[in-house]
């Protein structure tokens, strides 16, 4: 009996001990729950702290599970004790079961909260990635806007420079005009060609007496108009002195000009007005030769129209505006000379009291102004031999038209691609040849650094024109100074292009000379060729990590500035082939070695005497660019031939769907959206692509010409 009581007492102590342990465990779990709630709130507020403390929560969860396992084991023991002590422990066992149930609920709650926290963390990571992508897109857009702003700034600066050049041109013209005023009339007239004399006639007709003062007040070309009028009046004075009567004046003009001018009617009408003769043609004898000549010319021009039918004449017609004063039905048609002026180069200013008042255009063409300027500058002091052959005049006119066409094409390319204006460099002082070569080497280093950072950030490379402008802008603090520096560089390129191979290469890849061969691709090809040759010629430089270089690279300038530097023939050929097979080339050149020998002998690009396997560096680079330009022309011709083959309807132009079909037929894999963008870049104002525009694919560095031509 005593043992039984001791055992019961022992069991009661064990139950109390277990109960105490259970209370402590419950309190610990309650404290853990409070801590967990605090951690949960802290995790919601700070995601990063949550991610760092998630392992701690998982450890707590594992500990809780271990404790739950221990409690389950204790529960089994308690069940045995309850079975033995059922009357006394039933209430305690029920309490333990309730506590276990609450612990299980707590475990489920912790598990659900853990899953929720993981979902929140995943959503936060996705949102972070989306935000980073949006930030990157905004940065690219900001960079694009910055480039557009820089281009607009450069255009504004160019316009300001053009205005300054125009003012300078006017000042120079005044000086030349003053020098002409001191000459004898015969000396001035003797230096005129047929085309120049006709320009003087037109200038005289554009400047009637009642417009001279107005032009002096507002027209920038007032001095030009005055000087042209002076020279024209001198010529008219000479013609009048040779003419005994008015009718024979026609033959005198034809003899002086060497041909019958198309604007003879206009000249005669202007002469009648200047000489004070009556402008009423009805008073002229109908049998006079002059009347028949005028009547025939006016009938051919269809100018016998009434003022009310003015809308029948279109702007650009090389006719006269004549005011019909009388009535043809009465057989007494008469004409007034006031207001008679050529239509083609005139603008109707106003209409007063029924009189047609016509004034001169202010936008005189630059080519015509240059011809007139050359006359004032180059009139010889002595008598010039008389040229009366009609064919000579026609040859001059044809040559002038060809020259003007070439100039218009060059101007078009310069404006289209934003190249440097090399036409207005008169009076600009260039650098020495040593300073020019040094600056070119620095610009090439700047280009290499720019290409590296653009490739690193997956941005398109800058073309050479933008690189030069940015380098000059960083070199000079003030805008005026940078513009002066740029003009001096352009002048230096023109001065030394024939004396130094590197200067000529720089002029070609920058579009300063040989404008028809300018492409974005040429500069990239040259940089790849330069890199390939230097890596073979100076292998140690290749191991230098670009990331370790400070701002303002110095990779090529020292190498390029050495006029006596030699490269092996095999290194040059290998570097050239590397560039040809690169992303900017057109593939390997056929018969490269033979072409190299042929070009060297034809252009006097001589290798080192007594050693044909070694070239001077500048000679090698110049030959490489010449071979590249030949391959560039071949690729243009291949593209033109491809255009002709795919121009099925023969209309010599491609619509967008035809263009996309052509690109697909080449096997070149391109998304249709990219092909549409390519079409818009090449298309002209009529939204079609012609043969020449299609061949401009070679201009842009981003188009894979090798793949389009099937040579990849």
Features:
712 residues, mainly alpha, two-stranded antiparallel ribbon, single chain, two-stranded antiparallel sheet
Average residue pLDDT: 67
Termini separation comes to 106 Å
The SSE string, one letter per element, is: HHHHHHHHHHEEHHHHHHHHEHHEHHHHH
Query: How would you sum up the global shape?
Result: elongated
Low-confidence stretches: 201-231, 242-249, 257-265, 276-291, 297-397
Structural classification: mainly alpha
Work out the helicity level.
55-70%
Instruction: Tell me the number of helical segments per DSSP (H or I, 4 or more residues long).
Output: 25
Radius of gyration: 45 Å
In which order are the strands of the major sheet placed? 1-2
> Describe the biggest sheet?
2 strands, antiparallel
Strand content: under 5%
Outline the fold blueprint:
Elements: H1 2-45, H2 47-84, H3 86-181, H4 185-190, H5 194-206, H6 209-218, H7 222-242, H8 249-257, H9 264-274, H10 289-301, E1 346-352, E2 355-360, H11 366-378, H12 390-417, H13 433-456, H14 464-475, H15 479-496, H16 501-509, H17 520-537, H18 557-560, E3 566-568, H19 569-580, H20 592-602, E4 614-616, H21 617-646, H22 656-665, H23 672-682, H24 691-695, H25 705-708
Helix pairs in contact: 1-2, 1-3, 2-3, 3-7, 5-7, 6-7, 13-14, 14-15, 15-16, 16-21, 17-19, 17-21, 19-21, 20-21, 22-23
Domain EF-hand: 634-669
Coiled coil: 8-42, 128-162
Organism: Cryptomonas curvata
